[in-house]
Structures are given as C-alpha cells and as structure tokens.
Amino acid sequence: EAARRLLTEAGYTQANPYEVNLHVINLPQYAGSADLVEAIAGFWRTAGVKVNLLTIDETVRAQRSRAQEFQNDVVIVGTSADLFLGTRVYTSSLNTPASHYHDAQVNTLYQAASTTLDPGPQEGQLRLLGNRLFEINQSIPLFWLPAEAFVNPKIVGDYTFPGNISGTWTHLHTLTAAR
C-alpha cells in the first residue's frame, strides 16, 4: 500500500503506470536467480509497476550495455563485494569500462573518497557518496551469499583467496600444489 501511495504521489496510476524492464538472468553463483527475478517482478506488479521481463542473450546484453542502450532496465547481479567495491564495478566508470549504469556525480565522489587515507576527510566523502548512491538507487541489496572456497589439502597446498569477489573462481594464480 505504501509503495502504491508513493507511485501515485509521483504521478503513476493504473492508467499511467511506472514501467521498467527487468532482465531474467541466470547467475552462475546462485541457481535460483531467474526465479528470484520473477518473484521481484511479482512484488513490483503488486505495487502497481508495469514490469516487462526480458530474456536477452548475454553477449547481446553485454554489447547493448557497453553501448549504453538500456534506459530503464534493472539487472540482478551477484557479488560478494562490499558497496564501495560494488560501486567501482557497477556504477563508476573510473576504473573499468562503463558497461553498466554510471553517474558523473558518483564518479567525482568515488574519486575523492579514493584519494585519501585520512579517516576524517574520507568519512565525509564516503557519506556524500553513500547519499548519492541512495538518491539514485544504485544498489538494492536483496541477500548476501559470502564467497567460500573448499580445497582438498592432498591436492592444493595453499590458496590465497580474497573472499570479496563474485565467487570462488577468482585468483586462481594464487593456487599452489600440495607436496
């Protein structure tokens, strides 16, 4: 009911619904991701949002994303990253090619927060960055699945795993064989 009221206050009604494209994707680290996307669509429809479910080949989606062709689209992604790293990967175009949504103000604030280790000024910059990310709904955390790696010590001697990326498939160059 509260969501319907907010949409109505924003000028959206049954005759003029808010419309969004929601991409149905399969995340390799979360087998239920397509079902989760459809559940989200159901929640939004109940609130009065017109949801268009899209299933697009991942290669085509990546090409269209790099070309900045998506205008009102939501894509569920999986990451074990904290919000600051997630911002670098998914919202800022400073450190990676801008294949996802990016915001010029986020770029400026992220860069300012990244250039100091002094806790006082950095805290202020991070607060400004967090406020901007909240304003633009950069991230809507649904759940957190911590990355875990299990190895057979008879085969793997050591594996330095950062634990903050998207899954256990990263940093394989740090694997060493057991002796």
**Helical run tally:** 6
Question: What oligomeric arrangement do these chains adopt?
Answer: single chain
Helix content: 25-40%
- The arrangement of helices and strands along the chain is HEHEHEHHHEE
What is the radius of gyration computed over CA atoms, rounded to a whole number of angstroms? 20 Å
The general outline is globular
Distance between the termini: 62 Å
List the helices and strands and how they pair.
Layout: H1 2-9, E1 19-23, H2 33-47, E2 50-54, H3 58-66, E3 73-75, H4 83-90, H5 104-114, H6 119-135, E4 156-159, E5 175-177
Question: Could you please describe the fold and organization of this structure?
Answer:
This protein is an alpha/beta fold and about 180 residues long. The chain is built from 6 helices and 5 strands; from the N terminus they run H-E-H-E-H-E-H-H-H-E-E. A 3-stranded parallel β-sheet has the order 2-1-3, covered by helices on one side. A two-stranded antiparallel ribbon has the order 4-5. Helix 5 packs antiparallel against helix 6 (about 120-135).
